[in-house]
Write a structure and sequence with these properties.
Blueprint (H helix, E strand, L loop, with lengths): L5 H23 L3 E6 L2 H16 L10 E6 L3 H9 L6 E3 L1 H11 L1 E9 L5 E9 L17 E2 L6 H14 L10 H8 L44 H11 L3 E5 L2 H6 L13 E4 L5 E3 L10 E3 L2 E5 L4 H18 L85 H4 L45 E6 L7 H5 L2 H7 L7 E6 L2 H16 L5 E6 L3 H9 L6 E3 L1 H11 L1 E8 L6 E9 L15 E3 L5 H13 L10 H8 L3 E2 L39 H11 L4 E5 L2 H5 L7 H4 L6 E4 L5 E2 L11 E3 L2 E5 L6 H18 L29 E4 L7 H16 L10 H18 L1
Parallel strand pairs: 1-2, 6-7, 13-14, 18-19, 18-20
Antiparallel strand pairs: 3-11, 4-11, 4-12, 5-7, 5-8, 5-10, 8-9, 15-24, 16-24, 16-25, 17-20, 17-21, 17-23, 21-22
The chain binds 2-acetamido-2-deoxy-beta-D-glucopyranose (NAG) (4 copies).
The site of one 2-acetamido-2-deoxy-beta-D-glucopyranose has 5 residues, from helix 21.
Length: 866
């Protein structure tokens, strides 16, 4: 190999590309089954299978399929390939059946039946004999070095983590990333794939669960290529470095039965750690295990028709008939009850069929978990009629369909073995065409890996009935453990919204979060106003709401609510500029003389639409003021307005003035409502009021014009709006382009924030769970490009805008503990502004006059700084 000239290598490489291209087309053809493999050893065995199937195609009669072999990087890759129909089948363990079903629409079609007839094995915890003497309870495993088969595997991850959470004191660290709970509990360990996206969505996992792994960087460490990957790898990890390994009950016997893995390592060197903290011999797994696990399954995509799945099943059953003849003294240790036929009868305490299942300590026995889901118990099994292989020419079947022409040899089997790479393969000899193929034998024939394509200790594949071809039926009660490791101390989070369009978005959001299994579960409730939502949150009927800065103030003062997450727009900080917008064609409107003008406001008592502009106008004496009664001030000074909420006693505690809603656009009950049902509510609504409602000035945030104009929105009122049609009114009397908001604004307001219960009701556990949920929600749904089929947090279905979250939001910002208070969050300037416009705002011993001076200085300072 090494002596090959460079250009020949180059040719081989190009050939590889060419064959992988033709391969892609090939898979689409009928009568081909593509097996996804995850190692070069498995690929070799698959290629051997492909060759013998091709050679013996007559024996398959109508069930013939050509075998293609597709090597992927790991099982996760395989699942993606299956999902994309670039490969057809692969073998997965029970935990992976869940992952495949939940995230990749894969369905199990065949289940392994192990030697002895049972369709399950036990998860066990193995330690070196005489070690870990300080561990007499599983909670003492804290800080130890653990060897897991890989994140997501049932026996090698889910059951240990579940049991440690239930009985070993492992705390839930992150409701949406159970890997972190394990990281927090154990010391340096090895659990391959603990850093892949699926198990590390935010990307903030520490490498604690990779520290013990031994693969080479890059690519080989903590991945399926790591020598410590899988059950064999976890055992290797235990022998060489770890304190404890989570294995199948067969792994130790398997790995110590031959000498090519380890010489001098014997089964007796190890013992089981039971869930009650005691030790037993390796063979006592029936009384000392961490739970039963369904045997592995072959999965395909649910996109395959029932007929195609049946084709696969029939083919695989033929493969077992032809190449799966069990030799009872075969490669397995006769001491192992699983491979010793003498023990088969006594092995009838199948936990999935039998109530007598007994464990030492730990969870109560599973009540007859699998019987309804599966085939009849072993014993009643009706063996299929074998096919005589010798009869191939005389016994030629009447073919119902044409056996397809065979493809070029090298696409299905390459005797040059292009995966030959490392020195450990020196022993590998590609099989000859006549060579027998043993389906249930792997090492050392194809390299040093066992359990290739199928597990070596299997005697048959059972076709799953169509109605059981889904992960729920296959897993049955085992789902409890799989979902159990994803538990969260907080069950639900109720989001309070204020309008039907927001409710619709909330329900979509809930569905989207559920699709990613995000916790806590979100629930939506509709309050009749923001104030109502605040009340519901204080009363515990709702948990969170997204509020305008001024509502954060109201919620804090009157309802003890605290902000804990804020939005960030394009300034990098959770704040925005409040701007006054006029039409470019209307030069008569100026900030200093708005008497009789028509004004558009985002809402009564909102930061940008009310508090900041009114405080500004009042404190500078540019509007005739009635003390802190800003409602009267506005009503008597402006001509007409749209101030959504101005007629509601919840927001306007003074006298309602009709002209404050005159410009509003909502029909009947939504007229002048302070929610998305009023067309002129909110930032976009206020600008729309300026464009089509007759307004002279609109008070909005600095992003609003850009969000609406220059073709950003399709609604007819916005379709022809250009940003050049608008101008900002500056405090110094000048006008500026909308882009110049930094030099022409009324001050900054804090961004909208998510609030929850504070004061007596403050619960840190709940707040961290809510924060966690929003952070993961943002990770999965924070992208801004969206279409009608995908959900995006920061997008609102037209004609609406700013539903729940502002559409201008670029990210969510978590407020630390010190900032979780309305006054800390809003800052002194806003508090002063609010007191200027609101006679009921907080207790104040200062006179309004004194305030006016303070605020005008402050705002002047603010402006000169910005
Ligand atoms: C089983 O295999 C062994 C060696 O692998 C062989 O000697 C024996 O004859 C085989 N038994 C049967 C029944 O095929
Ligand atoms: C389970 O084990 C306990 C003690 O190990 C024993 O007393 C009990 O009878 C067993 N139960 C069953 C159903 O086998
Ligand atoms: C905080 O909330 C959690 C989950 O809702 C609850 O179990 C816990 O008792 C609460 N803590 C306090 C101090 O109320
Ligand atoms: C909280 O955040 C503020 C603003 O970012 C920062 O000044 C303060 O130091 C932080 N406090 C803590 C305890 O992290």
């Amino acid at each position: 190999m090494t002596s090959l000239p460079r250009n020949l290598l180059c040719l081989i490489f190009l050939g590889g590309i060419a064959s992988s291209i033709s391969f892609t087309n090939y898979v689409e053809r009928e009568n081909v089954i593509s097996w996804c493999t995850t190692s070069k050893e498995e690929q070799r065995k698959c290629q051997h299978l492909s060759m013998v199937v091709e050679r013996d195609y007559r024996d398959f009669r109508d069930d013939f399929l050509q075998v293609q072999c597709k090597q992927a990087f790991n099982k996760d890759d395989c699942m993606t390939l299956l999902d994309e129909e670039k490969a057809h089948i692969t073998l997965v363990d029970a935990g992976e059946v869940f992952v495949g079903g939940r995230y990749h629409s894969l369905v199990p079609i065949m289940q392994e039946r192990l030697i002895g007839g049972q369709k399950f094995y036990y998860a066990v915890a193995v330690v070196k004999r005489g070690t870990l003497l300080d561990v007499s309870h599983i909670s003492h495993l804290r800080g130890k070095s653990a060897c897991f088969a890989g994140v997501g595997t049932q026996a090698g991850w889910v059951l240990p983590v579940y049991n440690m959470m239930q009985f070993g004191g492992m705390q839930v660290i992150d409701c949406n990333n159970h890997v972190k709970s394990t990281i927090n509990f154990f010391g340096p360990s090895c659990a391959v794939n603990s850093l892949i996206d699926k198990y590390n969505p935010i990307g903030d996992n520490s490498d604690r669960l990779c520290e013990l792994c031994t693969g080479k960087v890059p690519g080989g460490k903590c991945t399926n290529a790591d020598p410590y990957a899988g059950f064999e790898g976890a055992f290797r990890c235990l022998v060489e470095k770890g304190d404890i390994a989570f294995l199948k009950h067969t792994t130790v016997a398997e790995m110590t039965s031959t000498s090519f893995d380890f010489s001098g390592v014997k089964k007796d060197n190890f013992e089981l750690l039971c869930m009650d903290g005691t030790r037993r011999a390796i063979d006592d797994y029936r009384s000392c295990n961490w739970g039963p696990v369904q045997s592995h399954a072959i999965v395909t995509t649910s996109a395959k028709t029932v007929e195609t799945r049946r084709t696969y099943q029939n083919f695989l059953m033929r493969v077992v008939q032809l190449y799966g003849r069990r030799n009872s003294t075969g490669p397995f240790n006769p001491q192992d009850p699983f491979s010793n036929p003498a023990n088969r009868d006594q092995f009838n305490n199948d936990p999935f069929y039998n109530n007598n299942f007994n464990q030492s300590g730990g969870p109560p026995p599973l009540p007859d978990p699998y019987r309804p889901y599966n085939q009849p118990p072993p014993g009643n099994y009706d063996p299929r009629r074998p096919i005589k292989r010798q009869a191939r020419d005389t016994d030629k079947p009447k073919e119902k369909r044409q056996i397809p022409a065979l493809p070029p040899r090298q696409t299905s089997y390459d005797p040059q073995d292009q995966f030959y790479t490392g020195p450990s393969n020196d022993e590998y000899r590609p099989p000859a065409r006549h060579e027998e193929f043993d389906l249930f034998h792997s090492a050392p024939r194809y390299g040093l890996h066992r359990n290739l394509l199928l597990n070596d200790n299997v005697e048959d594949l059972i076709a799953l009935d169509e109605t059981f071809q889904n992960y729920e039926s296959y897993l049955g009660p085992a789902l409890k453990q799989i979902l159990g490791v994803r538990q969260c101390p907080v069950n639900r989070m109720t989001l309070c919204v204020t309008s039907k369009p927001e409710m619709d978005k909330c329900v979509k959001m809930r569905t989207a979060l559920k699709a990613q299994l995000l916790k806590p579960e979100m629930v939506c409730t509709k309050g009749h106003s923001h104030i109502d939502c605040m009340e519901q949150i204080r009363a515990g009927k709702a948990d969170v709401a997204v509020l305008d800065a001024s509502d954060v103030y109201t919620g804090g003062v009157r309802y003890d609510l605290v902000p804990f997450i804020s939005e960030v727009y394009n300034l990098g900080q959770p704040e925005y500029y409040v701007v006054a917008v006029a039409k470019e064609q209307d030069p008569t409107t100026e900030l200093t003389f708005l008497k009789g003008k028509y004004t558009c406001h985002t809402g009564m008592s909102t930061a940008a639409g009310w508090v900041i502009p009114m405080a500004y106008l009042m404190s500078n004496g540019w509007i005739r003021s009635y003390g802190c009664d800003s409602v009267r001030t506005a009503a008597e000074y402006f001509g007409k307005s749209c101030i959504p909420g101005a007629l509601s006693s919840e927001y306007n505690t003074g006298v309602p003035y009709d002209n404050m809603c005159d410009l509003c656009h909502g029909t009947s009950s939504s007229y002048c409502r302070r929610d998305a049902s009023e067309d002129f509510y909110g930032f976009t609504g206020a600008l729309r009021c300026l464009v089509e409602g007759g307004g002279d000035v609109a008070f909005v945030k600095h992003t609003t014009i850009a969000e609406v104009s220059d073709g950003k929105r399709d609604e007819w009122w916005a379709r022809n709006a250009l940003s050049g049609d608008f101008e900002l009114l500056c405090p110094d009397g000048r006008r500026m382009n909308p882009q110049d908001y930094k030099n022409c604004n009324l001050g900054k307001a804090k961004a909208n924030a998510i609030v929850t219960r504070g004061g007596e009701g403050y619960n840190e556990t709940e707040i961290s769970a809510y924060i966690n949920l929003f952070i993961y929600a943002q990770q999965f749904y924070g992208r801004r490009d969206t279409d009608e089929f995908s959900f995006s947090l920061f997008y609102s279905q037209p004609p609406y805008s700013d539903l729940i979250f502002q559409d201008a939001t670029q990210q969510l910002y978590v407020l630390n503990y010190t900032q979780q208070h309305y006054a800390k969050y809003l800052g002194k300037d806003f508090l002063r502004a609010r007191r200027i416009v609101d006679c009921h705002a907080g207790a104040s011993s200062l006179t309004t006059g004194a305030f006016a001076i303070v605020i005008s200085t402050t705002i002047a300072l603010l402006i000169s700084h910005s």
